Inverse folding.
């Protein structure tokens, strides 16, 4: 019996679920009160266990008068469940292998240290369908000039690029935010030292120092990490 119970636990049953199932096999059928009495499991817990066993397809019941009589399904059903589970797992193996290959993709880093290089990479953003970014609250128009900044935002609007932008509440009164941006504010404590853009499989970080530097990182893992972080903050941000 210990070996049988161990096998049932490996199948996925808990200690108490295995005990109730084995008892029903032995008794043929029983009411919940009888199961509770013979297993010393609290009656409320027995109802929960019986419900879970029904959901697994291992227990059924019939109503006799006003009482339910529970009965264990033929043990061969366990083999059928295992076969169904095997087919289900086999069906997702191709996707799992694909994810594994994507996770192995090498990361590439490109550093831009001159104004023209940074301008070229920001110009490419106007050709995207969408991107998200953390705004530092300063740097873009100051570095490229207001005319280029206005032209850049106008091009985003013409190309109907969907943009979500998170901004520190510290700059709420200071910024003239272009209408093309779908923006939200984070608490004032959130101050980003750089402008960080997330798109495709890339993360672009622009540090607006005296001599600005842009770092373009290509890699699915780092993109997904930044994207998840952005999505969490977007959920809790405010208009």
């Amino acid at each position: 019996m210990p070996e049988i119970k161990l096998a049932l636990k490996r199948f996925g049953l808990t200690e108490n679920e295995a005990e109730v199932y084995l008892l029903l096999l032995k008794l043929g059928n029983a009411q919940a009160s009888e199961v509770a009495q013979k297993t010393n499991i609290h009656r409320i817990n027995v109802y929960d266990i019986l419900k879970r066993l029904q959901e697994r397809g291992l227990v059924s019941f019939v109503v006799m008068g006003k009482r339910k009589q529970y009965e264990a399904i033929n043990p061969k059903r366990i083999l059928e469940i295992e076969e169904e589970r095997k087919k289900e797992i086999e069906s997702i193996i191709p996707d799992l292998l694909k994810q594994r290959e994507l996770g192995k993709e090498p990361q590439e880093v490109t550093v831009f240290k001159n104004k023209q290089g940074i301008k070229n990479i920001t110009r490419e953003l106007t050709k995207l369908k969408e991107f998200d970014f953390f705004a530092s609250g300063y740097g873009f128009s100051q570095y490229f000039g207001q005319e280029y900044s206005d032209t850049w935002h106008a091009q985003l609007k013409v190309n109907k690029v969907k943009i979500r932008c998170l901004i520190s509440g510290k700059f709420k009164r200071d910024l003239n935010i272009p209408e093309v941006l779908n923006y939200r504010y984070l608490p004032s404590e959130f101050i980003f030292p750089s402008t960080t853009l997330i798109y495709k499989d890339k993360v672009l970080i622009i540090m607006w120092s005296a001599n600005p530097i842009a770092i373009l990182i290509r890699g699915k893992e780092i993109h997904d990490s930044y994207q998840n972080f952005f999505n969490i903050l977007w959920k809790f941000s405010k208009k």
Remarks:
- The CA atoms of residues 108 and 166 lie 26 Å apart.
- The chain has nine helices and nine strands.
